[in-house]
Amino acid sequence: MVHYHCVAVGCKNDSRKKGRLHKYPDMIDKNGNAVEFFPLPSAVKYPKERKAWINSVRRADFNPGPQEYWHSICSKHFVDHKPTKENPVPTLFSYNNYKIKQQRTTKNSNVPLRNQDQSINSGTQHNLVTPAHLQLKRLVVPAEEIYKGVQCEVTLSTRKPKTSEVPLPVPEYTQYPTKEHSYSLSDDTKNDESNEGLCETDVKAKLTCLTVENHQLKETCGGLEVQVKHLRTQLVDLTGKLRESKMQTDALNDKLQNKDKLFRENLLERLTNSDQNVKIFLGLPGVVFLMGLFNILKTNASKMKYWTRQSSSLDKSWQQGGKRKPGKPRKLTLFQEFTLTLLRLRLGLNTYVLGMLFGISQSLVSSIFTSWISFMEQELSPLLKWPSREKIDKHMPLSFKRKYPKTRVIIDATEFFVQRPRNPTAQSHTWSNYKSKNTFKALVGITPNGAFSFVSDLWSGNISDRCITEKSGFLDYIERGDHVMADRGFLINDLLLQRGAYLNMPPFTRACNHGKGRYLTSNEIKQSKNIASLRIHVERAIQRLKSYQFLSGTMYINSISVANQALKVSAIFCNFMKPLVNKVSK
User: Fold this and answer.
1) How confident is the model at residue 326 (pLDDT cuts 50, 70, 90)?
2) Measured between alpha carbons, how far is 338 from 342 in angstroms, rounded to an integer?
């Protein structure tokens, strides 16, 4: 489609602005209509007209070629709003203040010189009044002496007539009045003087009335101009609203025709219509929290590129300069992609089911989930932080204050099922004797009130608790004087003592001296019960973590690349829930 633009100096009208008249009011002419564009005449068929148009524009070094057909002049520069036979060339430009060029009026412009000469030469023949004949101030001619039954009075002025006035013919007088007898002019002269006085009074009164009427008309015209401007503004607003309503109508028609799009919107509406639905299906506290989290992520998510392979996101400039993402346009909106990711993380739906629900392919579902889960882990990772000693003491529950007030963290290891690898070496590394399946293992730590403060990466299932504690980087957060609570399998007391920390662990049973079996003393039993009553909170936190069924089910081999990201994002979402342990709990 050809886009025309006006070549007049100072004019910014463009055919692409026709669809947004509410934003570009200059595209509306005086009649309230959208401006039209008229291309320059053909250089082959109408060379003279083309040259006249280019000269009227008055642009330096402006000589477009015959193939540059997009140069045009808008209707604002034509007297008749378009080229006509009377006004074929545009004449309204900024250099003449958009005014119509009028013919200059001179002293003798109304009467041609030729006609004036003829009138002067023929003045004696037709008895015309000329400046040479104007000698009397007033000439009264009795009608009886000239024409019978007709009374005529001619008043002449001694001033020179204007060139625009037509000379008055004077009838031929057979006899001019004289002043030999005073009685012949005295009464008429008196009547004329009184009539002149009355005429002057009437003229002044009429002039005053006309002045008042003129002032009233000016005020009325001013009010009408204000109303016209207001109506034009309303017209522009209504035109913009009409276009918006048309766009909305077209969008609704597209939705009705696109069944997949309509089904997606109905699905999202049902998932987000209540806090309970959001908590069950998406794993977040409520609708308000869901929208707030999306508003935080959408700014950077709009520049995110879909992940397709490891090298697809390298050496790209899409992260800088506010550029849009490269690649194909998105088929889903950002909120739909965000909801799809939460659905898979919370319910553990496979790519086929999600592809059916959202009307997209399985490969696109996998690409969206991989991109979004990695993006959320990068954006939300600061929320999974190791709190300071002061904050731990501030939010310490009463049950810990009474029994173990110096507890800094409660740790435990948890395992996640995974598909059995084909490689025998990988099978042996992921085999767990405790679960009797192939698993991944992670070390998690919670604060005394139940919030996750440490989540390690996933390790193979056959790793020991001591080894994962030593290699995961957990010991780097331990400070002197901290107390760590753990289960019997964590033989890390020596590692903690090197950092000046202590381990609170249930005591081991001892063999009986007088027979078979093992036993604990009464103090050891009491200590074991106290530790177990507090250490149970880490089990509750792990249960909440595994409520995200992407982790609790058997993970596919092709999902291992995003397993660490899914684990940490799920832990962050668990911290958004209510605390597991109340501050005043006993």
Assistant:
1) low
2) 6
Chain position carrying tokens 């006004």: 87
Distance CA 503, CA 482 (A): 9
Instruction: Examine the pLDDT at 406 and tell me if it is beyond 60.
Output: yes
Per the model's pLDDT, the better-predicted residue between 122 and 17 turns out to be 17
Task: Find all residues with CB under 8 Å of 135, minimum gap 6, and list them.
Answer: 158
Mind giving me the DSSP string for 192-210?
HHHHHHHHHHHHHHHHHHH
- Mean pLDDT, residues 233-240 taken together: 92
| Confidence label for 386 from pLDDT (cuts 50, 70 and 90) | very high
Give the count of beta carbons closer than 10 Å to the beta carbon of residue 222: 10
72 DSSP β-pair partners? 6, 39
SS3 238: helix
Task: Tell me the pTM.
Answer: 0.56
CA of 391: how far to CAs of 385, 388, 478, 536, in Å?
A: 12, 5, 15, 22
- The reported pLDDT for the residue numbered 327 is 56
- Rounded Cα distance, 3 and 14, in Å: 7
The answer, yes or no, to whether residue 504 has pLDDT greater than 50, is: yes
**Main-chain phi, psi angles of 52, to 5 degrees:** -65, -40
Tell me how far apart the alpha carbons of residues 482 and 493 are, in angstroms, rounded to a whole number. 12
Alpha-carbon distance 50 to 41, whole Å?
Answer: 5
The mean predicted confidence, pLDDT, of the chain is 80
Residues near 170 by beta carbon (within 8 Å), at least 6 away in sequence? 127, 128, 129, 133, 154
- CA-to-CA distance for 127 and 164, rounded, in angstroms? 19
Q: Which sign does the torsion angle of CA 224, 226, 230, 236 carry?
A: positive
- Strand 407-417 relative to strand 437-446, pairing: antiparallel
In which element (H, E) is residue 54 found? Answer: helix 47-57
Q: Work out whether strand 437-446 and strand 452-455 pair parallel, antiparallel, or are unpaired.
A: antiparallel
